[in-house]
Design a protein that fits this description.
homodimer, Alpha/beta knot, 2 domains, six-stranded mixed beta sheet, 7 helices
Amino acid sequence: MELFFSRQFDGDFCTLDADESGHCVKVLRHREGDEISVIDGEGTLYTCVLTDASPKSAQARVVKVEPDWGAHPYRLTMAVCPTKNLDRYEWFAEKATELGIDTIVPVIGEHSERKVFKTERLRRILLSASKQSLKGAVPEVAEPVSVKDFILETGSREDVTKLICCCFEGEVPRTSVFEALGELAGREIAVLIGPEGDFSREEVALAVEKGFVPVHLGPSRLRTETAAVTAVEAVYLKAFC
Amino acid sequence: MELFFSRQFDGDFCTLDADESGHCVKVLRHREGDEISVIDGEGTLYTCVLTDASPKSAQARVVKVEPDWGAHPYRLTMAVCPTKNLDRYEWFAEKATELGIDTIVPVIGEHSERKVFKTERLRRILLSASKQSLKGAVPEVAEPVSVKDFILETGSREDVTKLICCCFEGEVPRTSVFEALGELAGREIAVLIGPEGDFSREEVALAVEKGFVPVHLGPSRLRTETAAVTAVEAVYLKAFC
């Protein structure tokens, strides 16, 4: 099932931008009268009929609206330190989208190898992954912030289940991720995943002070992107399996 | 922690091959007297002292032996259809190794896009992932077989918990992967993951006849490699979290 994306919905009509129109009309050769499916990136699937097969600005009439298409029953924010190798971070982002996630926050930690991160490419990957995995909502990518600022901003929200995945075996009592997650339906969850060098003691202390629960993800020594996918899997599998 | 790999253990001595010796002596500049850690790929970690810093055939004396290093308490075989894009299959193999797996079997299904698969590159990736994630055992890669042959060979083993992940919603009653896994300690598990076009009805019918339990991995539409990692994660998280 091919999906198109648009943010331009006006009454009963939807307009595709130049990229989407080109793909629709020139590559896939859709013509007036063809049925196409369009997501708005906010969760809704629109079944439409093509009314103007313009290769730069195609238009279609909406015939059916399905909200919460492919949605998951929780809100998950993954605050993950960007990896030195960007491919790895992009793999995590793609897999997290297939499974179900709402926001990715690139966080820069004291031990981060990568201190600079550009979000544009990640946004394109998330859109592509949302279309491929048939989800009406495309996860957001926040602008990078420091781990400390993420802890302070999220820490003020009491309604969010906040987890920090860290090592510090023996020093910091850690719960298993499943126990810390508890009941998931309707919940908002935020998970912090550190760089290869782990969080600093000060970052963990601040997180604990602000209500983050230190958790472990089992005994395996996981790369940053693998730990991040493992946390997303823990939420997904707990909710659905 | 850097790890070396060797299959040449003779009494108290261990010899590194040309690649490993080059890395040890020329790249990392180890000298006689240095302590190095060597895995044998079968599960044991040997702490050794370098006795001959030869750049093509380094030798070291074993001073400590730790069996089952980084081991997991179950045996997991993942029979996964090779993806059209090999990067994706390699990504799955690397992540599965970090988490804990014993064998990868590339299986060719009726709907497989990729019918040919060379195992050599995958073996190098598994060795590298095992060293990076500090595991004494390197997973095996079997030679490719058809899905049907894998079902027939594995089906004859009653002591193995056999799962087949498929869609066929409504047609085939499916259990959640967690329920189907049951108790994990000391168990042998085999999981079949199909191609993007799913297994054929005949393949699923044969699997069910041979004792495979049809399972679902939640509602998300997952790529082959994502489904494979999700199954590995289900086993890992169930065992440890």
